[in-house]
Specification:
It is a single chain. The chain is of the alpha+beta class. Among the domains are: 217 residues, Beta-Lactamase (2-Layer Sandwich), CATH 3.30.450; 125 residues, GAF domain (Beta-Lactamase, 2-Layer Sandwich); 94 residues, PucR C-terminal helix-turn-helix domain (Arc Repressor Mutant, subunit A, Orthogonal Bundle), CATH 1.10.10. It has 19 helices and 17 strands. It has a six-stranded antiparallel sheet with strand order 3-2-1-6-5-4, with helices on both faces. Strand 2 and strand 3 form a beta hairpin. Helix 2 packs parallel to helix 5. The longest helix has 68 residues.
């Protein structure tokens, strides 16, 4: 029988006589009984051995193919080492395997060792991290060399990782991007003295695929991590968008509710209540004068600061600047458990008020802020609506009062009916205040000043009517049946004028108090008469009541004659006081006020009687008059009475 020369050849297999593998008993028996009958010659036996070796190679390539499939699958790099060690051991029939890989996440080497104990039929796995390679691992990784030697070539230090080396060692470097990234070592080949050239070449093929697979796996993990980061970011953005969408839906719902309240005319109180229910916290609305328009804070709130307190307290200067200059909301924390959120109510460039809420033992959410800012917008619309209504009513009232002053009305019944329509309380008393302002070139114009007075009175005294007539600013006030019920208004008005008019002069005349609205025309004439007297006497920045003119109000002498009489009588004394900064006119007033009693006058003026007598002598010298003369005394008292008709200083 001839020898079969058609033998399957693998890398390094033609001359590898030392290559062997454990014999398969079943295959041997089959080959012996079927292929090689008894009495075969030596060539047949050699062919049988060759077939066994070829079968071994086929099995090795089958193992290598399986390992390649594993390496090409999407496995995590952490799970690859143990799988590859097992395939490598099976590929070269080794009892022990070791894989050393450079760590990416931290410095050093990751060592994975796997032992198979044939005698005891068990396996052991060891993993550790070392700072630097040693022994055979160092040789392979630093020089990139392949090691294939028996144990007799190594000292104990060289056998790092294989302290139980019994027979032989095969180690190869692992490459990735032309760089050594690790080492794969096999030890203690089964049944044979050493690893063959075929073992080395097969292990190198597996090692090259492992290096590529590890690099790919690491790249995949890096990309996967970056992708996961992007996915997480997208999820985070998606959550933000969902949250914003929910806020938008809630804000739209709130907007519809609040707008509906405005359209139905329910007013600011209903808006305040609805907003408080929505954010589940108390709400307060104030106008630009810090008057409370609506509130749900029926119980005292700890350390709550209203608008007036903010403005008056210097500790809140930063918050006041943010609210009134930047027109932005302010979040305050009076204490650790309390949060106060204040939003300015803005219409155009004008701040019309504030809307405030307080959260106690509760966090302020973005939705709450959106609801408060939306509420401020709706409150601004309602305030504009109220202001428009008030302005319209004011204009109608001003026109109506002008008709009364012109006595231009059909009948008293029509006038009373119209007055009730416009909200006048006919049971109250009425009084007219006339104001005359001498405006400078750089001062305010008359319309601007009138508008300012109109707004001031509307805020502080809402039942008053302000209009202009014949160059005067008139204020018609309705008040209770009391004398001088307009005094609070006059005091506030004087302060306002002092603030507005730095260089200009003003005069105020107050007419008589009348019980009927139609009598306002008489009160108006009295107020103008009082102004004319002040003007004739050249008295500025003063207030005079017509009722305090006494006898002068009855005779109604020409104001110019009043001025000439007063100037002729006590004019020299007034001029002396102004020139020398003295108070002789006051001394003369005290003298006549206490019926020419020098002791009483001196005591009331906190003067020594001698000083009082000296001043009286000085007055007689300046005026060239005798104070003891009855006619002279009468003229002086009339002039002093005229000059001191309760003219109030500014």
């Amino acid at each position: 029988m001839k020898q079969n020369n058609n033998i399957i050849s693998f890398p390094g297999s033609a001359k590898s006589d030392a290559l062997s593998a454990p014999a398969d008993p079943a295959f041997k028996a089959e080959a012996s009984s079927e292929c090689f009958p008894a009495g075969a010659d030596l060539s047949v036996e050699m062919l049988r051995q060759e077939l066994l070796r070829e079968r071994k190679r086929v099995m090795q390539w089958h193992i290598l193919t399986e390992a390649s499939v594993i390496l090409n699958s999407k496995l995590h790099s952490e799970s690859l080492p143990l799988k590859i060690i097992k395939y490598a051991k099976k590929l070269v029939a080794a009892e022990a395997g070791l894989l050393a890989l450079e760590e990416i996440k931290e410095s050093g080497l990751k060592i994975v060792k796997h032992y198979t104990f044939t005698d005891e039929a068990k396996e052991e796995l060891f993993e550790e991290i070392v700072q630097k390679p040693q022994g055979a691992i160092e040789i392979i990784m630093q020089k990139g060399e392949v090691i294939n030697r028996s144990s007799t070539f190594y000292s104990p230090d060289d056998l790092y990782g294989f302290s139980n080396l019994k027979r032989n060692l095969l180690g190869i470097p692992l490459y990735a991007n032309r760089k050594v990234i690790g080492a794969l070592l096999m030890a203690n080949k089964s049944e044979e003295a050493s690893f063959t050239q075929d073992d080395q070449e097969l292990l190198m093929i597996l090692g090259s695929q492992l290096g590529i697979a590890l690099e790919n796996s690491r790249l995949y993990e890096k990309i996967d991590k970056e992708l996961q980061t992007k996915v997480d970011e997208l999820e985070r953005v998606n959550e933000i968008l969902k949250k914003q969408h929910r806020i938008l839906e809630k804000s739209l719902e709130m907007h519809d509710k609040l707008t509906g309240l405005v359209l139905k005319g329910d007013g600011i109180t209903a808006i305040c209540d609805t907003l408080a229910t929505f954010i589940d916290s108390p709400v307060q609305v104030e106008d630009h004068n810090f008057n409370v328009k609506a509130t749900t804070m029926h119980k005292p709130v700890k350390r709550f600061a209203c608008g007036k307190e903010l403005v008056e307290n210097e500790d809140y200067s930063k918050q006041v600047s943010t609210l009134f200059q930047e027109r932005k909301p302010v979040e305050m924390h009076p204490d650790i458990d309390t949060t106060q959120y204040i939003v300015p109510v803005v219409a155009g460039q004008q701040i019309m008020g504030l809307i405030t809420t307080v959260f106690v033992h509760k966090n302020l959410k973005q939705l709450d802020k959106v609801a408060m800012e939306l509420g401020a917008t709706i409150v601004a619309l309602e305030m504009l609506k109220e202001r428009a209504s008030v302005e319209q009513t004011k204009r109608l009232k001003e026109t109506f009062v002008e008709h009364i002053l012109n006595e231009n009305f059909e009948s008293l019944e029509w006038m009373h009916h119209r007055a009730l329509q416009l909200g006048f309380n006919l049971k109250k008393m009425f009084q007219v205040i006339a104001m005359d302002v001498t405006l400078g070139q750089n001062g305010r114009s008359s319309p601007e000043l009138c508008q300012d007075i109109r707004e001031f009175c509307a805020d502080a005294f809402p039942h008053s009517v302000v209009l202009t007539r014949n160059g005067y600013i008139l204020i018609v006030v309705s008040c209770d049946n009391k004398e001088h019920c307009v005094k609070p208004l006059l005091e506030a008005l004087k302060k306002r004028l002092s603030h507005l008019l730095r260089e200009e002069n003003w005069r105020i005349g107050v007419g008589t108090l009348c019980s009927r609205l139609e009598d306002c025309v008489l009160s108006y004439r009295n107020a103008v008469t009082s102004l004319n007297i002040l003007k004739a006497l050249n008295l500025n920045n003063r207030v005079v009541f017509y009722d305090n003119l006494g006898i002068f109000s009855l005779i109604e002498i020409n104001p110019q004659h009043f001025a000439e009489f007063m100037k002729r009588t006590i004019g020299p004394l007034i001029d002396y006081d102004q020139k020398h900064k003295t108070q002789l006119i006051g001394t003369l007033n005290l003298f006549y006020k206490y019926n020419c009693n020098i002791l009483k006058a001196a005591r009331e003026g906190y003067l020594n009687p001698s000083t009082m007598k000296y001043r009286l002598r000085r007055i007689q010298e300046i005026m060239g008059l005798d104070l003891k003369d009855p006619e002279t005394s009468l003229q002086l008292q009339l002039a002093m009475r005229l000059a001191n008709c309760n003219f109030s200083d500014a």
